[in-house]
Design a protein that fits this description.
The protein has 7 helices and 9 strands, in the order αααββββαβαββαββα. It is of the alpha+beta class. Strands 4-3-2-1-5-9-8-7-6 form a 9-stranded mixed beta sheet, sandwiched between helices. α4 (114-123) packs parallel to α6 (188-197). The longest helix is centred in the first third of the chain and has 22 residues, at 8-29. The radius of gyration is 19 Å and the shape is globular.
Length: 239
C-alpha cells in the first residue's frame, strides 16, 4: 500500500509482472493448460526458424504414479501453421497412443512425429517433454562430414556445453546421428536403437532433417534445445 502511494507506476509494474508470473505458473502447474503451452512454444519455435513450413513439433507428458493419475501426452497436430496454432488444436493421448481428448478444431491429424514421442517416453521414464525442430543449423551440422557416414557429432571446448546438461566446457559432447527416412514414423526403430546405444544422450540428430531433444520438464527440454542450436551454429561457423 505504501509503495502504491509513493510510487504508483512501480506498483502497477509490479502487479503486471506478478500477473504474468502467475499466468505462466498456471500453465506449468495445471495440466489442462498444456495445450495452450504447446501452442505458445510452437509459435516461439516458428520465430526461431525451427518450425518453418509447418515442420517440427512439441509434446508434453503429465501424470503418472508420482501424481496418482494416468499418464497423458499432449501433442501438436500435423500440417498446421505453427505460428497460428491455438490450444484447441492439440491432441491429448494416453500412453498407448489412444486419443483421450481430440482437438476442438475439426479435421486435424496427429503429427507423424507421434510414434517418436512414445519411443523417447518409453525409453526414458523421467522425460516429460520432447521437442522436434527443423533448425537449419541442426540440419547443416549433420552434413559436416561430407561422406555422410559418421554416426555421431562430437563437440568440445565451448562454454555453451554447460547448457545441454551434465557437460562442462572441456567435456566431449556426443550427439548420435540417424539417417533420414521417407516419412517421420519410419525413424522410430533407429531412434530407439541410438537412445539405448547412448544412454546419456538427450538429443538425436536426423541427417538432412533436424533434431529431437528431450528433458525432464518442458523448461529443461526448451533450454537444452536452445543450447544445442547455439552449439551447432558455432561448430558450423568454425569449420
Amino acid at each position: 500500500e505504501n509503495m502504491e502511494k509513493k510510487h504508483p507506476s512501480l506498483a502497477q509494474l509490479f502487479r503486471r509482472q506478478t500477473k504474468d508470473l502467475e499466468s505462466w505458473r498456471t500453465l506449468i502447474w495445471r495440466p489442462e493448460h498444456n495445450p495452450s503451452l504447446i501452442a505458445q512454444l510452437c509459435e516461439q519455435f516458428y520465430r526461431f526458424g525451427w518450425a518453418t513450413g509447418t515442420g517440427g513439433g512439441v509434446s508434453i507428458r503429465v501424470g503418472g504414479p508420482s501424481e496418482s493419475r494416468p499418464w497423458r501426452v499432449f501433442v501438436a497436430p500435423s500440417g498446421i501453421q505453427k505460428e497460428d496454432m491455438i490450444g484447441d488444436d492439440i491432441f491429448e493421448l494416453d500412453m498407448n497412443g489412444k486419443v483421450v481428448v481430440p482437438p476442438k478444431t475439426p479435421n486435424l491429424k496427429q503429427s507423424a512425429c507421434t510414434p517418436l514421442w512414445y519411443v523417447v517416453y518409453k525409453q526414458r521414464p523421467t522425460v516429460r517433454s520432447v521437442i522436434h525442430t527443423h533448425s537449419m543449423y541442426a540440419q547443416l551440422a549433420t552434413l559436416l562430414d561430407r561422406t555422410e557416414s559418421t554416426k555421431v557429432l562430437r563437440i568440445t571446448h565451448l562454454e555453451m556445453l554447460k547448457g545441454v546438461g551434465h557437460h562442462g566446457y572441456d567435456d566431449v559432447l556426443e550427439i548420435p546421428i540417424i539417417d533420414n527416412r521417407p516419412s517421420e514414423d519410419l525413424l522410430a526403430d533407429q531412434l530407439e536403437h541410438v537412445i539405448n546405444a547412448y544412454p546419456n544422450t538427450n538429443a538425436v540428430l536426423v541427417r538432412r532433417h533436424g533434431l529431437y531433444v528431450w528433458g525432464d520438464s518442458w523448461e529443461q527440454a526448451k533450454t537444452q534445445c536452445e543450447a544445442f542450436d547455439y552449439l551447432f551454429h558455432s561448430v558450423i561457423e568454425m569449420t
